Amino acid sequence: MALLFLPILVAAAISNLVRADIGTASYYNPPYLPTKCDGDREEQFPPGNLFVAVSEGLWDNGAACGRRYRLRCLSGPKRPCKRRTIDVKVVDFCPFTPCPSTIMLSRDAFAAIAHKHGRKINIEYIQ
């Protein structure tokens, strides 16, 4: 009897481990300083310039500063996605009102996961 429940328990445990959100991403251009998180400090940017600015839904009154997200491109116009996942760091609040995407990627971060056929892609992300 216990052997019948084991596959169910394993499936439930795996489904609880993978809880990604779906959103949109665009890229924004320099200058990236100052940011809402660490002002004019160059040290805030991670290696490879894989950083993001987030929209109101993720900003959390500034608590998002320094958070890390793993994300990947899902779809977009003209099949822009590269088969790659990247880790990014939140350094800013979206510089546009209203914000055009859930997450605004640095140009380098966008180029790491998508070809620049368009400016907006669909993404999957997890903290």
UniProtKB/TrEMBL annotation:
Residues 23-127 form the Expansin-like EG45 domain. Keywords: Signal. PROSITE patterns: EXPANSIN_EG45. Pfam families: DPBB_1. InterPro entries: Expansin/allergen_DPBB_dom (IPR007112), RlpA-like_DPBB (IPR009009), RlpA-like_sf (IPR036908). Residues 1-20 form the signal peptide. This is Expansin-like EG45 domain-containing protein. It comes from Hibiscus sabdariffa (roselle).
